[in-house]
Specification:
This protein is an alpha+beta fold and about 60 residues long. Helices cover about 20% and strands about 35% of the residues.
Length: about 60
Amino acid sequence: GGPAERGGLRPGDVLRLIDGEPLGSFRDATLILSRVPLDQPLRLVVRRGAEDQLALTLPGPSRP
């Protein structure tokens, strides 16, 4: 029930882009996400299944 699930992300989805930036590793994702301003929505492109590419928008990180 977290933000990723509410935004449409599913188990098994493979992140390809975060806000237009390609991902080569988990470290890339961490660096990109650390630069996202709080409460700014994230635009993701994910691979779901063999060839499927989906564009999703998730709520951005919020203040603790």
